[in-house]
Request: fold
Amino acid sequence: MRGSDFAELKAFVAVVERQSFARAAEHLGLSPSALSQTIRQLEERIGARLLNRTTRSVAPSASGERLYSRVAPLFREMDVAVAEASEATGQISGTLRINTLGIAARTIIAPRLARFHQAYPDVVLDIVVDDALADIVVGRFDAGIRVGNRLEKDMVAIRLTPDLDMVAFASPGYLARCGTPKTPADLHRHACINWRLQMDGRHYRWEFEKKGQRLEVAVNGPIVTNHADIGIAAALNGLGIAYHFERDAVGELLAQGRLVQVLADWSISRPGLFLYYPSRQHRPALLGAFIDCLLDRKPFDRR
Reply:
């Protein structure tokens, strides 16, 4: 294979996996125009359109799907081979791709970025914040971070946090105007901030439990979002009752009195945040170093 052939295929795989010329170009260190030219050269050489493009999206054609399914595993194998060779030198370097929930990005990863970079300056962290439960294998991520009950099958899972408390909350102003719900059923008479599940577009049904009685409540209100910051801001501004993890900024706002918890006796906990990666995948040294950093432990354990 010529060097240009390899570069064209690598560019094609990057576009498919990132679903964007701009993101793929940034990853490859190319300009978008140079990347477009590379893809055109590949399509001309093969004699088939590989990518369907619109102003808003890019996706593989039928021919592109077939090509991607054959070459993507080869690139993954090469990445593993390079990682193993790098480990043999005792140096930790390379690019680590992580797909993570927003709560983990804000509360676990962000506070440790400087320390990780100082310890491993030759590692590039490619962190994608994504609450849509993306398939980390298809996306060629080295690992993902999710709530424990939403882990994909056949994964090695490492707990990062204790269980997470879920809380329903509103601003003092909203409760003064509209009253305080006493039971989950009362939420039907309140404005609520809905959470959209990106994987299928459904709205999350709020879950509650008390003395063994477990309930799921479908709520309605003026705001629907898939981003925690929007939901919390809506509650702070008196637009309704929201439901979220206490750990993710909500606890501090409750302590300050800017938000008030409701239905506290119905609160539930989630299994906590876990980092996970495919069980059949060789765990590179840089992923182990990243895990150690998130867990505030050292030295690196080469398990």
About this structure: The chain has a mean pLDDT of 85. The chain has ten helices and 15 strands. The first helix runs from residue 3 to 18.
